[in-house]
Structure formats: C-alpha cells, structure tokens
Specification:
By secondary structure, the chain is an all-alpha fold. The chain is built from three helices and no strands. Helix 1 packs antiparallel against helix 2.
C-alpha cells in the first residue's frame, strides 16, 4: 500500500516498531522510517501544502 500522507508513514513505522525485539532493531526502524518521512515531506511539499500535523510529524525527524 502506498502511503498518501506523512501520518500514514508514521503509523506504519509504529507498527514496524512493535515487531522489533531489541533496542537496536527499534532504532534502525526509526532511522530508516524517519529518513523516508523527511524525504517524502520535501517531495510532497513541492506538490502541495503540507498540513500542520504533517509538518509536526516531519519535524520530529529533522524536516527543516
């Protein structure tokens, strides 16, 4: 399923983190998903205005 919003990406990240068994796995999921969220935020920003919730979520992962 293709994520359509930043919120969907974060929800998917949280689902993936629940499947992790160690702190290392959780940190890797957060790093990889955070990078994807940040990249998608920059990409989607060019196409449309991000909602305030999307901006807040993306800022958690280094957006702007």
């Amino acid at each position: 399923m293709e994520a359509r919003t930043i919120k969907h990406l974060k929800e998917k990240m949280l689902e993936d983190m629940q499947a992790c068994h160690t702190a290392l796995e959780r940190s890797m999921v957060k790093a990889i998903a955070g990078k994807e969220i940040r990249e998608k935020a920059y990409e989607w920003e060019k196409q449309r205005k991000l909602t305030p919730a999307e901006v807040a979520i993306a800022q958690e992962f280094g957006y702007r």
